[in-house]
Amino acid sequence: MDWTKAKNILIAAFLITNIFLLSVLYGGNQPEESAGISDQYATQTIEFLQEQQIELRTALPMFAPSLNSVTVEYRFFPLQETAYQFLGEDALRVDLHTYENHKGRVTVLEEKILIYENKEKGRMLTNFDEEKLMEMGETFLQTHHLDPEGLRLEQIYFGMEPEYQDEPLHKLVYQQTYQNRFIGESFVHIYIGQRGIVAVEALLLENMRSIGDGTTHTMISAPEALLRTVHQIQQHHSADTPAIITDILPGYYFPLHQKPIAEGDPVESGTAVPAWKIVLKDGKTFYQEAF
């Protein structure tokens, strides 16, 4: 048996148990909409994460909000209509999911995941600051009607995206929100290189509504969510340097891969549940359901 791993599991279980007990006691003196943890357990959590080669570079939320689940529906992208919108009506179908011409390629997966690849090369860009990237992103979203209410720019990354280009790209990460809180796994990703927009990926939701009579439920605490995610983080980040957490936020999570009611029928709607979003420095995002 790997005794080091067993010890770490026991320590994590001990911390989770104590965080839960303390939240019950300490949360009793807090407003109904939140439950709190003590500085002591926040410190213990941070120290445990450090022992696991995980570094926290953002404030650890001390209170957990109370939220309802939310019903959501997918926005569908009809393949031919979407291809003509991006490429023009001379685009030709090349396989079950893809249209293509000299301007680019449009692929729609599961009727709701849009992938656009641009083949046209614009003039070389000289001003590549964050403001310019944001302007380019907003213009593209508005032009192609990919800007639903509540869509928000979350991060901008710079690095290799080998599926689209051999040179580094800027990646603009947008996510939808409901009542000012994120809804994962909705997204728009815009990839920008020296000659303009290279590719775009999108999965969008619509018709979001809270479930129930207004009764809310308190989420698990942020430390508990972190402790439940340690193993996933370690599996993703196997380098000698620590994995760096840059953001921890409460919101909603609607996983993409849900089984359809009948074989061949796409999933049209579902329930987004309260969850914590944990973001690493390299952009990798984990969602921990919060009940």
Verbal overview:
Strand 11 (177-178) and strand 12 form a beta hairpin. Strands 2, 4, 11, 12, 15, 17, 18 and 19 form an eight-stranded mixed sheet that branches. Strands 5-6-7-8-14-13-10-9 form an eight-stranded antiparallel sheet, with helices on one face. Strands 1-3-16 form a three-stranded antiparallel sheet, covered by helices on one side. It has helices at residues 3-27, 39-51, 79-87, 130-143, 222-236; strands at 34-36, 54-56, 63-67, 70-74, 92-95, 98-101, 104-109, 113-118, 152-159, 169-175, 177-178, 181-184, 187-193, 196-203, 205-210, 217-218, 243-253, 269-280, 285-289. The chain contains five helices and 19 strands. The relative contact order is 0.18. It folds into two domains: 3-71 and 211-255 and 269-281, Lipocalin (Beta Barrel); 72-206, TATA-Binding Protein. The protein has 291 residues and is an alpha+beta fold. The model is unreliable at 19-33 (pLDDT under 50).
